[in-house]
Amino acid sequence: MDIQGVLTTKVKEAVNSIFHIKLESVEFQPTRKDFEGDITVVIFPLLKVIKGNPQVIGEQIGDYLVENVEEINRFNVIKGFLNLVIDDSFYINFFNSIKSDESYGLLTPDPKSKAIMVEYSSPNTNKPLHLGHIRNNLLGYSVSEILKAAGRKVYKTQIINDRGIHICKSMVAYQKFGKGETPELAGIKGDKLVGNYYVKFDKTYKSEIETLVAEGIEKKEAEQSAPILLEAQEMLRKWEAGDEEVVSLWKTMNQWVYDGFETTYKNLGVDFDYLYYESNTYLLGKDVVAEGLKRGVFIQKDDGSVWCDLTDEGLDEKIVLRSDGTAVYMTQDIGTAIQRVKDHPDVGGMVYTVGNEQDYHFKVLFLILKKLGYDWADNLYHLSYGMVDLPSGKMKSREGTVVDADDLMLEMTQTAREISEELGKLEGYTKTEKKELHKMIGLGALKYYILKVDPKKRILFNPEESVDFAGNTGPFIQYTYARIQSILRKADFDYSTIISAEGYQLHQKEKELLKQVQLFPEVIQNAAENYSPAFIANYTYDLTKEFNSFYQSIPILGVEDNIQKIFRVQLSKKVGDVIALSFRFLGIEVPERM
RNA sequence: GGUCGCGUAGCUCAGCUGGAUAGAGCAUCUGCCUUCUAAGCAGACGGUCCCACGUUCGAAUCGUGGCGCGAUCACCA
Known about the structure:
The protein has 594 residues and is α/β, with parallel strands linked by helices. The protein has helices at residues 3-19, 54-68, 88-98, 131-149, 165-177, 183-186, 190-214, 219-225, 227-240, 244-268, 278-281, 285-294, 329-343, 359-371, 405-423, 431-451, 474-490, 508-518, 520-529, 533-553, 562-585; strands at 28-30, 39-42, 72-78, 81-86, 115-119, 153-160, 274-277, 299-300, 306-309, 317-321, 347-355, 380-385, 388-389, 459-460. Helix content is 53%, strand content 11%.
């Protein structure tokens, strides 16, 4: 069925029979729209082994192919390009083979193959989620779905950074100013409440520094000796010592945050299979480091600190344990990775969705795990993505210059409602249905906006200019899907008949659409190999554009010929299916109407 | 300074395992709703693909050297 495979063989055969030369490979590309043809053989590379004029060589191969390959009708040669015209029957047969296949494009997982664990989100528990987390979440979730579609077994996970000085800051501020406030009493989400105290801490801290400086103390000194900071440090010591009061407050406030996060995740449509808490895993890496030291993977310095020498790899030495024996960030990540494989022995690789400011950290982490000799260490991937910046610069929670995740989702939904109401196409929909639809569209716009760009690229997000709903956007694709569903609702006849390739002549628009549908499985594989939802987004856009052109150029339900009508409805349905599937990989829902 | 990433139309981005005249959307301007949803379609306008050199029949794509932007080079996480 794979035309390229067939052609490769046949072109080799042709070259062998005409020139008596064995070819290694043949280069194909889709024919440019300005020329007649569907697939093109590039002749230039052949000139290295075949002496002669590319025009003549092309024609000779073309003649042979028309003679010997059933699917090829005719050809033309322009410069060094051999354009082949494929017979309609090939496309129709292809379509018949996939039209009822609901898992078209998907690979079923090999039960023996190893699972892959995808980590994403991994927030601190002292402030609400913001736009940066949204990018992280969408990427991690989407890549998980894409990997599944490509036949991988996937576990979604996150590590929750629930310990450390940053948590204590919120806790201290709450103790000082909280007066027993709770999310219920304040009527706000728990993560927002805790976030407020984090900001409050920072304000107090800054004013204390000012006071100290006014009293004539050096700024650096003041920064280190501000009373509220000392209190936070004291609290961290108490926490590590298991102080009951502190631990109890920690538990209460963390729970508020988890509840708040849960709401945000639910709205965003992401979820996790397994959770890891830093408070449970931060000590794990120490044993591994001790063992690695024994085996000579690490070296110990005079002060007792332990290091990994990576100078052979062109990097520096990296600390894995402090001189006082406590764990650093790296220690914890080593431990967590190993723990995950212990918990889930079928895991054979991991994907870490973390911003690109940590490129170096993960490079080192992966090297260390490899040095420690874990076989899965070859299958680690850092899904590194660029920051989301505002026109005013970086987002900083402490300074309140963030785009809050909940607020943004709400705004997108409201914009969707305004547009939708203006167009007024939802007659007969209940309030609830409309509300759901507006959310679907608003989030569709947001998710597509973020996922369509290459993860590596930095995104500049301007809250003043709202995310578009027209053009290359989520709603555009959702709209096309709704159009297709409308056609299917109106097609009140049996369109399940298989259209015979015999005697059916494809309209140009039908053919272009079929070619686009044909690309789908390959796109999924590419997206999975590159860990890039952007591949899926861009493909879906191309497919959608092609469909809209088809839709506006030729009648579907209105066409005279019954066979044509059935075929076009079938084709429309298939395009709708592919759109829905693609969007599912992006975590975007598609509407019946809009 | 070393390392990594990015640099394509006024703006946002595709294209990057080398191929024909570099593609979309937004914005600006023209047409198209008494036929299947106009959140649409068709068209116009808009380009030193950051610069230079090199490899090649052929370079936005590969290599080297620059320039610009960002990140990173903590006994912070």
